[in-house]
Amino acid sequence: MPLSLPPVTAIRVFEAASRHLNFTAAAEELAMTQAAVSYQIKLLEERLGTHLFVRRARGVELTEAGARLAPAVQRAFDGLRESFSALATSNEGILSVSAVITFAATWLVPRLGIFQLAHPEIAVRLETSNHFTNFARDAVDVGVRAGRGDWPGLTSHKLRDIAFSPMMSPALAARLGPAPKPEDLLDLPLIDPSDSWWTDWFRLAGIEAGDIEERSGLHLLSQHLAARAAIAGQGVAILEPAFFREEMAAGRLVQPFPLAASSNWAYYLVYPETRRPPRKVRAFRDWIVSRLQEEAALRPERAAADAPDPRMS
C-alpha cells in the first residue's frame, strides 16, 4: 500500500531548505521562523523514519535519503510554480466583460477595437445579457449595468445617464401629420408597451396613457431589437436617442418630440469591491470613462448628461 503524503507544509519547508541548504534562508523565503522550519523538518523526518539533513556549523547538508528525495520534490514544486504562473498570466491577459445588450451593441462593440489597439496585451471576451452577473459564481471581471448604482459588494462608476424618447420610422412619423402632439402616439402601434419607460414618458408629457402596459404589440425587451423593428415601420419604440444618432442622421429613425424622460437610472461600470482591482480591470475602467468623457466634450449640449462620474477608487 503506497505511503500517504506527509503534511504539505512539511514538504514545502523541505523543498525550500533543500534548495538553500540553510534553514535561516528557507525561513526567510517562507516567512517563518527558523525554529518553525526546524520543527517541520523534524516532523517530516519522523514521518519518513530517516534523517534528511545533517546539521553543520554554517548550514545543513542533505543526507543520502535527502539527496534522493530533493530533486523529485523540487521538480514537483517547479511544476506547481509554472502552472500557477501560467494561470495568473492567462487570467491577466483575458478580460471578461458582461454588458447589458443595448449598451454593448450600440456603444461598446463599435469601440472595442480602440481599446484593443491601446492594450494589445489584453484580449476582451464580451458577454451580453440584461440579467445581473453574479460575480461570485460567473467568470466575469467587470460588468456594465443599468440601474441606480446601489449594488452591495460592488464598486460602481457612473458612465452616462439614461434618457429616452419615442422614435419611429419617417414613414410612420408622417402618419402623425404636420403638427403632431404626444397623445397622437397612442393611435400608433407601440413596441414593448409594457416597458415602464412609456409610462414615465407620457407622464412627463402630461398625458394620461391609461393601461398602456396591457396593450398588444411587439415585446422585444431590447432597445437594439426594438430599434430594428421601428426602422422597419412596425411601430413606435421607446429608445435612447444618444445610442441611435447614426440612424437619425441617415433618416432611418425620427424622434418626433424633443422631450426626453429619465427614470433616474444610468449605466454603471461595476466590479467586486477589493482593495485594488486587477490591472486589466483598471485599464478598461480608465479607458471607458475617458472615452465617454471625450465624446461628451464633443457634444456640449449633451455633456452634462453624458459625462461619467470622475470619482474612482
Distance between the termini: 56 Å
Classification by helices and strands: alpha/beta
Sheet of most strands: 5 strands, mixed
CATH architecture heading of the largest domain:
3-Layer(aba) Sandwich
Strand order of the largest sheet: 4-3-5-9-6
Number of strands: 9
Order of helices and strands: HHHEEHEHEEEEHHHEHEHH
Mean pLDDT, to the nearest integer, reads 87
Fraction of residues in helices?
40-55%
Please name the fourth-level CATH homologous superfamily of the largest domain. Periplasmic binding protein-like II
Query: How many domains, as an integer?
Result: 3
Strand content: 15-25%
Which fold name fills CATH's third level, the topology of the largest domain? D-Maltodextrin-Binding Protein, domain 2
Low-confidence stretches: 301-313
Number of helices: 11
GO molecular function, one term: sequence-specific DNA binding
Family: Belongs to the LysR transcriptional regulatory family.
InterPro entries: LysR-type_TF_proteobact-type (IPR058163), LysR_HTH_N (IPR000847), LysR_subst-bd (IPR005119), WH-like_DNA-bd_sf (IPR036388), WH_DNA-bd_sf (IPR036390)
Protein name: LysR family transcriptional regulator, glycine cleavage system transcriptional activator
